[in-house]
Amino acid sequence: MKRAAIAPILLGALLVAGWAVSAGPGTILLPTPAQVVVRLVESLADLDFWGYVGVTVLEALGGVVLGVAVALPLAVLIHWSAWVSAAVNPFLGATQAIPAIALAPLLVLWIGYGLVPVILLCALIVFFPILISAVVGLRHVDAAVVDAGRMDGATSWQLLVHIELPMALPSILGGLRNGVSLAVTGAIVGEMVMGGNGLGTVLTVQRGNVDTAGMIATIVVLAAIASAAYAVVLYAERTSRIVNSLRPNRSESS
To answer: What sign does the CA torsion over 62, 64, 66, 69 have?
Structure first.
């Protein structure tokens, strides 16, 4: 096995071993790994639990789709227009300084409780990483390739669709890779603040019951969801980089 595969396995084994040693047999605050595994198996065997998982995934996915739908067009406008870029850039830095979680009480007042405000909160969290990565990716597209396209008579729209966006895709997916993980976090925090029927609600109930083994088991499920989404986007990002590497280089374009 390669070092990249062995190293995390060894670290994980050491962490679990340290956890097992630290957890006493009757400890409430820190259950043993075996107790967490038992609660995890019980949760996964419960059909109602999968309903909570589905709601959380829906909230996170809805936030990602909405965030991308707003961020990409704005990134294109910033890329195309120096005026839009000059107008928006100062506000981007200021708005990133505002914790998106702090907006949750406002969303409750404006929209109410439930699914929609949680999706909006996830979208706000996802929006900025995707916007910034898309702008950076579009600005770093090979100018020689773009100029060659213009010389062939391509319009700005054609350049965007066939050259700029495909070449900026690895950067965009890099922002999305971080965004999908943040969206899961946003869904959980949003449910805890604004209510819902997902895993955030499960964690709230488990916290009230001092069910630490159940809480850790639920967190493990959340980590698995975020890791799976991260891995899917990472695979797409690596594939897009391979495809871009097969494109004609600068000399061939000219």
So the answer is: negative
